[in-house]
Task: structure prediction
Amino acid sequence: EPRSRVPHLAFQPDQLEQFNLLPMDEVETAFYLRMQVVDRPGVLAELTAILSELEISIEAVIQREPPEGESLVNIIFLTRVVKEKQMQQALDHFETLDSIFGQVTRIRVESLR
Result:
């Protein structure tokens, strides 16, 4: 009785489907952004101006008062769906600002509809 051949790692070449993959720059998702900024007037306006220039809409923003004696505050943005390329441009621009301390945390937000 001949032995059946099982492909390595159960890989079935005849079951593959062809998918059109988007370049990463064209992938569209919403984003969660968190950054630590200097607590002074105009910083939030500076950040939202950058997002506006790149046509990135904001779903929500949170900025709370810093603890007593602190000069840095967290700002959190939740954006609407945007192309990766636009978000990367915004982050590149954010990195040039002296009002941002450290790196911006970016998390892609996928909707499960």
